[in-house]
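QA checklist item 7 of 12: single-chain prediction sanity check.
[x] sequence parsed
[x] length recorded as 245
[x] structure emitted
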Amino acid sequence: MRIKTKEWFGEWFDSPYYHVLYQHRDKEEARTFIDRLISYFQFTKNDLIQDLACGQGRHAIYLNKKGFDVLGLDLSPQNIAHAKQFENERLEFYLHDMRFPWQGQKCDYILNMFTSFGYFETNGENQQAVSAIANSMKKGGKLLIDFLNPYTVINNLVPEEVKLINGIKFHICKYLSEEYIVKDIAFEDNGKRYEFQERVKAIRRVKFLEYFEHANLEVLDLFGDYNLNPYVAEESERMIFVLKK
């Protein structure tokens, strides 16, 4: 299975410090969002739901606890190793790069949540990923891509901040570089200095629509937040696309 290991996301997401920095993410908000998706999609016990870029699997695990068959995929070996301890007959985790079609069972639903897209260097790779995702779905299957709204993120960018978490002082600088929203992260731990960088492409709605068209995906809905309110270009926090194959 082909996974590039030198890209920033392969290194950073596989680092234990990634989970330290983001440990305070709102779990209740995430679960409420997933509950809304369960209601919106009307999942059944016969559906196979794929959590694509699942991280350590907390959302996949939550879906499984709700009684669904779930497949969690992620490119971080450390994340998948952690998630596998929670596997059962209706919950499995595998190492996978979304740029390549999933070779296992095709899925009824694929969920790509919490800005788990936009990391690749080229439009070609983005298109490759969307097409690969479409290839992994059953005919008539549905896909959700939950992405940041580049308009509001760029307009509200906080250039610098410091976060003290578990005794580690994270120095964070955010800025726009060409087409990317960049976050530089620097800190010291046990006398050693670390530097990581996050780079998320500020993909606009129109570009996403191009990707979807080329992958033969039909847009069913576009929401602007986790309450599933309609998307408003200059105001919404998110761009949450719902698509059908």
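[x] summary fact logged: The radius of gyration is 18 Å.
[ ] second reviewer sign-off
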